[in-house]
Amino acid sequence: xxxxxxxTPIPRRMGSGLFAALQRQEDAVPVNQYERAFRAxxxxxxxxxxxxxxxxxxxxxxxxxxxxxxxYVLGVIQDWCLRERKPPLTILVVSQHGGQPGQGFIxxxxxxxxxxxxxVFSYPWLTLSNPFQFAAQDSTPEELARAVVTRxxxxxxxxxxxxxxxxxxxxxxxxxxxxxxxxxxFCGLSLKDALxxxxxxxxxxxxxxxxxxxxxGLLLCSTHHALFDAGILSISADRRIVCHHAKVPxxxxxxxxxxxxxxxxxxxxxxxxxxxxxxxxxALAYHSTGSAHSx
Length: 295
Hints:
- This protein is mostly helical and about 300 residues long.
- It is about 40% helix and about 5% strand.
- The strands form three sheets. The chain has a two-stranded parallel sheet with strand order 1-2. Strands 3-4 form a two-stranded antiparallel ribbon. The chain has a two-stranded antiparallel ribbon with strand order 5-6.
- It is elongated and about 60 Å long.
């Protein structure tokens, strides 16, 4: 979570002394950007339904903050739109002088902004629930991920607070990063950018608890996630890795294939230190049936 300015309302015009004081506060006070996104959402969606834009200064005044940290709030909303494949709502926030989105806007081709505005203005935003409702009481994804790690039996309750698939996936990945100590459960890769949260029972079939509980998940590197989803790699009841060569009939296995996948056959997977957080028997039994292999 980025450290930004606090929640004190900020006047639109201020002297350099006040700005310096607020800047020091911005550097010192951790801020829940999801709570700010929760408050920004109604303004942005109403403006979208009206076919109008909003300036950085106007949004900052609405939130009671200086315009400078607005980029962090917009980043949260932009990421949600990208994950959920929604039109680029943050395209509406523009500078007062140039009338264009800021440099942090990456959700649409900057050379075809008119088409982006058309998508946003025509989308029925007001039919959606606020996806950041969970943050109304100042909760963060990090705190909710910690909750499901500490009390995995409360996973369904956490899901009910969030419901948004995009935010739930963030919580799920944060939880798995913690319980697997930021290492792929199959190969041990620890480069965070390459690590993904894999559902064992797929999202579309999983119940509320299974959608966010770490016992229905694995932290895998992108390659082993793809092989797991394809059913080429799986896990036995005793938590050993199984390589199913028969899933790719006729394939001539190269040395690299063997090193990345074949050689894992029979090896023990890396398991969480807390046995309560191991992949559940029910999840592994489901995956072993071969009836579904995607999350």
